[in-house]
Amino acid sequence: MSAAINGPRAVLFDCDGVIADSEPLHLRAFRDVLAPLGITITVEEYTDRYLGLDDRGVFEEVLRLHGRGDDRELVATLIAAKARGFRRVLETETRIYPGVVDFIRALAGVPLAVVSGALRNEVEIILRCAGVREAFAAIVGAEDVPAGKPDPEGFLRALGVLGGSDAIEPRTCLVVEDSLAGLEAATRAGMRRLAVTNSYPASQLRPLADLVVPSLAGLTLARVRQLFT
């Protein structure tokens, strides 16, 4: 029988939809670059089909659905254009979710990382806006892994960076997510899962999460530790 764990040995955060309310900014940037192609994405489509994917995954799926799949040059052009548009609004319009900063600071002493489908420099901007960049020892962005969520590689890579020569077992790690794709990736990585209902209702998150909360505001480290007893 495995020994009980007294709290997480590492905590891995998603960024968009967990730390910052930035998914609407992503959707706006996607819409702006797809409009010249005559393609639109509704809020419902974005939430149901694309939320949690990295930019490449979104554009590849959108183009496939519109009969323009396997156009790698177009995908690369769209990714670059979307990144430029997204960065223009990120520093001025990013809203950090209530309770996030306090929760991160309550985890002082626990190794932290961000694993995101966003680009690494976009994550850096959000963490600086929140005033918590120094709390994170590692960032794994879209450019750091060949496959985004729901593939577990991003979480496993971050755990390897945090552990260094002292390997951290996935089962001792907590992932904080808002998306179904992210929770699936964490499940496949063998990690515990905390879901926040910022993007999906609790009923959709519960089958994939160990704990579902409406907000990180007021969430205590004691409650998190209960997931590891």
Q: How confident is the prediction overall: mean pLDDT? A: 94
Count of separate DSSP helical elements: 10
Instruction: Name the structural class.
Output: alpha/beta
- List the uncertain runs: none
Number of strands: 6
Envelope shape: globular
Based on the coordinates given, report the CATH architecture of the largest domain. 3-Layer(aba) Sandwich
Question: What would you say this structure looks like, in words?
Answer:
The protein has two domains: 10-20 and 95-228, 3-Layer(aba) Sandwich (Rossmann fold), CATH 3.40.50.1000; 23-93, DNA polymerase, domain 1 (Orthogonal Bundle). The longest helix has 22 residues, at 72-93. 44% of the residues lie in helices and 10% in strands. Strands 3-2-1-4-5-6 form a six-stranded parallel beta sheet, with helices on both faces. It has 229 residues and is α/β, with parallel strands linked by helices. It is built from ten helices and six strands, in the order E-H-H-H-H-H-E-H-E-H-E-H-E-H-E-H. The model has no long low-confidence stretch (mean pLDDT 94). Helix 3 (55-65) crosses helix 4 and helix 4 (72-93) runs parallel beside helix 6. Helix 8 (180-189) links the parallel strand 4 (173-177) and strand 5 (192-196).
Summarize the helices and strands and which ones pair or pack.
Blueprint: E1 10-13, H1 23-34, H2 43-50, H3 55-65, H4 72-93, H5 100-106, E2 112-115, H6 120-130, E3 138-140, H7 153-163, E4 173-177, H8 180-189, E5 192-196, H9 202-205, E6 211-213, H10 221-225
Parallel strand pairs: 1-2, 1-4, 2-3, 4-5, 5-6
Helix pairs in contact: 1-4, 3-4, 4-6
